[in-house]
Amino acid sequence: MAHSTALPGIHPTDEDEKQTKPQGGGRKRDSGSGRGSDFSELSRRIADAGLLRRRPLYYSVRFTAVGLALAGSVAAFLMLGDNWSQLFVAAALAVVFGQLGLAAHDLAHRQVFSRRRPSETGGLVVANVLLGMSYGWWMNKHTRHHANPNHENKDPDVAPDIIVWSRRQARQAKGPARFIGKHQAALFFPLLTLEGLNLSFSSFRALRSPSMKRPVLEGTLLVAHFAVYFGGIFTLLSPGKALAFVAVHQGLFGLYLGSVFAPNHKGMPMVEEGTELDFLRRQVLTSRNVDGGALTDVFMGGLNYQIEHHLFPSMPTPALAKAQVITERYCAELGIPYCRSGLVASHRTALRHLREVGAPLREAGH
Question: What is the distance between the alpha carbons of residues 188 and 225, in angstroms, rounded to a whole number?
Fold first, then answer.
């Protein structure tokens, strides 16, 4: 059973997950400089273990495998022609797109290349050209998430646009969030089927944002992606089969992405405005690792080691498992709760959290 933190401004949830318990009460440092040194010590241990060095062979093999899977899916699509069996290709392509999304994520964090230019070029190719998602828009959004995970006002991933993530948000909800929030636990997975389309829609909408550095380039690449995507599908398939192909592909793609990202923070403590946490505790207390072995590692692209990823965003994926052992032991030394859960249990926790925080909306509807 998990136990919650007692930090002010943190709303704990009742989870049936494994956490590292404080040993001997742990060490609590109350000075700003002391807490800052907590992460410095962990960083030193991680660096001494050689876990921050680049892994070019790993990424060469991984990206080649994803590229071959993409090429194979396209070849199968062209060979099958106007046939309902294309829906199997759509399902396979959804998995490939999910892996491309994970590849874009690693490129954005400079896990693949240490320099900005090749990371950005790779990100534009994978995100804009292959996925139809704006690299610049997603990069900006994801950077803000990493800076303040699960912060009610600063983390864009918990903005109450459609779903509410805290009781405070539920009480203030308006529009779609107020209606959907009443039954959001039941609607969560159905809504995920729209996530792929939402990413593309948000990408086009962001082209007019002042924060977009290369709107013309990114817009051109996005248009090129969808011209090829829809052009190929509706040229080769009859209208009914084409619409079914898009529905299956985009629906499963969104479901895959949501299943990868949802377990990492959903149902973990939410941070209110004014709460002060040092970097180490801010990242560890709001994140959850997902256990499951090699298959889970491949399915989630290493994001199942969410705590370590948030602490060391540029750490290559294959180093995260070893970093997890070091980090969990270190958190035990300091008495910092460290959350781990199985994949199914983590989703169950997230859904329970969604139902709990939506209670004020259901009560107001009576």
Answer: 28
As given in the structure block, the two tokens for residue 340 are: 């781990």
Determine the Cα–Cα distance for residues 152 and 75; give it in Å rounded to an integer. 45
In this prediction the pTM is: 0.87
The DSSP element (H or E) to which 289 belongs, if any, is strand 289-291
CA distance 239 to 98: 25
Higher pLDDT, 34 or 290: 290
Q: Are 312 and 230 in contact (CB under 8 A)?
A: no
Question: So what's the pLDDT on residue 363?
Answer: 86
Q: Are 357 and 183 in contact (CB under 8 A)?
A: no
d(CA 150, CA 157): 8
Question: pLDDT of 230-278, one tens digit each?
Answer: 999 999 999 999 999 999 999 999 999 999 999 999 999 999 888 888 9
Count CB atoms within 10 A of the CB of residue 216.
9
Of 124, 65, 121, nearest in space to 95 by CA: 65
User: What confidence tens digit (pLDDT) does each residue in 54-104 have?
Assistant: 999 999 999 999 999 999 999 999 999 999 999 999 999 999 999 999 999
How far are the Cα atoms of 103, 104, 168, 242 from residue 130, in angstroms, in the given order?
11, 10, 39, 19
HEC readout, 112-135? CCCCHHHHHHHHHHHHHHHHCCCH
Report yes or no: 281 and 338 within 8 Å, Cβ to Cβ.
Answer: no
Amino acid identity of residue 326, one-letter, is I
Cα radius of gyration rounded to whole Å, the chain? 21
Q: Are strands 338-342 and 270-271 parallel, antiparallel or unpaired?
A: unpaired
